[in-house]
Amino acid sequence: MPYYEYHGRLIYFSAFKDHIGVYPVGEAAKHEDLKRYMTGKGTYRFPLDQPMPLDLIKQLVQTRAAANAGKAESAGPSSSDRSSYAGASSASRRASR
Fold this sequence. Notes:
5 strands; five-stranded antiparallel beta sheet; elongated
């Protein structure tokens, strides 16, 4: 499942026949403004026939990014940071051959 990452996973998302699913890691129940889209623990469904609440989703992602950055500062470099860097390095080496 595709996701966005910043000092750890921020949010997963997927497209379905009738809706777009958004899965914020551990944050879904904390955002009251998005409660009407919640369909299960940690799941938001946005119907395709309605405009998505982009400002609310942006707030959700910004909250996650700030939380992840705070954790990263206190913990130092994480293994996901190192693996992302290593993956980029090996991809660059392959591309230059």
